[in-house]
């Protein structure tokens, strides 16, 4: 059998050469008391003091068997004396596969017993009760290791190898009463005004039918605790993609739907059990304006609060990897602090959501967030910058609740060429670029007038001395004017104290303005996606603000020069 579990502690591809670079010129005082705490529970199930696992065995296969093609084989499996299975007979030579699947619920009183119990597998020939070979793996390794397992079949006498057996085993510990508690909920409109409303909370997990209704609060405040409980596993709770989440529907005083806020479990999960995690998520309204369906939901406010988890399962299986005779190869641990197979000297690397998302989607998301800037001076200055033709600015119609929060609805932009709308502001594009909307998908794209090529990658926010271009074949590249070199590597998204440059051979290096040094090492290569996203957003916001003020200064200078010319004429 394999070892038990330990408590967790904390080829380069040739690229085409880019084109040569040629330089060109809260709660209010005196408010009514908040609503009382609310709780929603699922139906009670299961015996107290029992630890329950959902087990599924499938994809059974034997390889390397020494037999002829006329041999018939079957497998006998014993799951810790709790369940026993026998497959049908299959004919094969060295490799045999069974179309077999078994699912059941496994319960035990103490988790410590997992390391002492085994799943045993025997391979037998038709009509024989003596196994050709057998293998075993302990249940602790299955509960916290990879789902894919490969074991060596050995003779009872002598222990020589007669082949291998491989299978998949899902062994997911359930929590029949996993509790999610939200406290200090605050609904905030634009400008920081409280939004009077009531909330309806529900969970996206399949089978989590419990729903929680929070009563009308004139101050948009629910101190809580507000609790939902349901039956699930850690793997189901924290999977991605897609994310599982709590949805808060915002209902106004007239029982009209205003929008919803989503708190994703994986993005609001503590590194230590029992700790509360603060969150701040947007409240979005999807609807129509001026008879046209909005390309993007309207941002009407924010929901803040804290979330805490109780009765979490102890075990969760690893993501990916394979268990080979008790030794783990590859794979990731789902979250920090989980048990891991005893054969590993240290915890496996932490799994991160690797949902493939192209750079253009990330850039578009950053642009959309620019509309949420809450700096009144910047927004007033932005109003003085004209839209490029033929774009038109409109404002989302506001319901009575949102009108009470003050101001016009969020601006959006209409493109008469495609008859579509978007929240992505078409202003402040670099020279030779044009923003458009695809009439079929509604996605924003950009045209480079020099080559007449298009891309979904946003050309904005390039650092000083850098410029994004598109080649005649449609490839996006970045030109660096000081050395007249170019590269396919995006120079954007670095921390504020660093910048990218190209040497005279076109090699990218990085300047650290704090340490006053340079390096070949890209700081983005060693950071996780949340940090990279934060860097990109911060850089984009800095760029946007600088561009707005520079454009205003250019307009002031133009007016001053025009007035001076008129004075000279007079």
TrEMBL record:
SMART domains from the entry? WW
Q: What GO CC annotations are associated with the protein? A: cytoplasm
The UniProt GO MF terms for this protein read: kinase binding; molecular adaptor activity
Q: Which domain of life does the UniProt lineage start with?
A: Eukaryota
Region spans: Disordered: 24-43
**TM region positions:** none
Q: Name one GO biological process term.
A: regulation of hippo signaling
> Any keyword Phosphoprotein?
yes
Q: Write the protein's name.
A: WW domain-containing protein
Source organism of this protein record:
Zooxanthella nutricula
């Amino acid at each position: 059998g394999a070892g038990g579990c330990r408590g967790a502690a904390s080829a380069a591809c040739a690229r085409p050469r880019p084109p040569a670079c040629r330089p060109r010129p809260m709660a209010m005082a005196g408010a009514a008391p908040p609503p009382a705490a609310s709780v929603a529970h699922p139906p009670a199930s299961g015996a107290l003091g029992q630890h329950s696992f959902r087990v599924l065995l499938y994809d059974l296969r034997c390889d390397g068997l020494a037999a002829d093609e006329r041999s018939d084989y079957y497998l006998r499996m014993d799951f810790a004396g709790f369940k026993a299975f026998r497959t049908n007979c299959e004919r094969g030579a060295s490799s045999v596969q069974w179309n077999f699947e078994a699912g059941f619920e496994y319960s035990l009183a103490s988790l410590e017993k997992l390391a002492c119990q085994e799943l045993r597998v025997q391979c037998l020939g038709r009509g024989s009760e003596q196994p050709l070979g057998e293998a075993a793996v302990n249940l602790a390794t299955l509960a916290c290791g990879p789902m894919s397992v490969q074991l060596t079949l050995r003779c009872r006498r002598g222990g020589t190898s007669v082949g291998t057996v491989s299978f998949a085993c899902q062994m997911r510990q359930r929590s029949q009463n996993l509790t999610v508690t939200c406290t200090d909920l605050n609904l905030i409109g634009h400008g920081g005004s409280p939004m009077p409303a009531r909330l309806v909370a529900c969970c996206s997990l399949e089978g989590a039918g419990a729903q929680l209704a929070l009563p009308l609060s004139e101050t948009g405040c629910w101190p809580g605790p507000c609790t939902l409980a349901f039956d699930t596993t850690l793997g189901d709770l924290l999977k991605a993609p897609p994310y599982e989440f709590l949805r808060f529907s915002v209902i106004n005083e007239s029982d009209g739907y205003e929008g919803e806020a989503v708190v994703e479990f994986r993005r609001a999960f503590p590194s230590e059990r029992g700790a509360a995690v603060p969150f701040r998520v947007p409240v979005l309204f999807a609807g129509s304006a001026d008879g046209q369906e909005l390309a993007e939901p309207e941002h009407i406010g924010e929901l803040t609060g804290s979330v805490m988890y109780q009765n979490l399962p102890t075990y969760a299986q690893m993501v990916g990897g394979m268990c080979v005779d008790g030794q783990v190869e590859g794979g990731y641990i789902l979250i920090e602090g989980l048990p891991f197979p005893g054969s590993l000297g240290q915890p496996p690397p932490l799994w991160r959501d690797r949902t493939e998302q192209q750079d253009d989607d990330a850039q578009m998301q950053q642009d959309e967030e620019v509309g949420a800037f809450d700096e009144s001076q910047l927004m007033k200055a932005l109003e003085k910058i004209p839209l490029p033709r033929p774009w038109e600015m409109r404002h989302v119609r506001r319901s009575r609740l949102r009108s009470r929060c003050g101001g016009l609805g969020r601006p959006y932009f209409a493109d008469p060429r495609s008859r579509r709308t978007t929240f992505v502001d078409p202003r402040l594009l670099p020279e030779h670029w044009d923003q458009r909307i695809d009439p079929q998908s509604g996605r924003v794209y950009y045209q480079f007038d020099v080559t007449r090529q298009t891309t979904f990658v946003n050309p904005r926010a390039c650092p000083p001395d850098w410029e994004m271009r598109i080649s005649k074949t449609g490839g996006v590249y970045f030109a660096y004017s000081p050395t007249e070199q170019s590269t396919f590597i995006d120079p954007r998204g670095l921390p504020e104290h660093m910048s990218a440059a190209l040497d005279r051979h076109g090699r990218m290096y990085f300047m650290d303005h704090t340490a006053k040094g340079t390096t070949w090492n890209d700081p983005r290569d060693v950071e996780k996606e949340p940090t990279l996203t934060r860097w990109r957003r911060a850089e984009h916001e800095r760029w946007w603000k600088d561009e707005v003020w520079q454009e205003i200064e250019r307009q002031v200078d133009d007016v001053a020069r025009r007035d001076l010319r008129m004075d000279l004429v007079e």
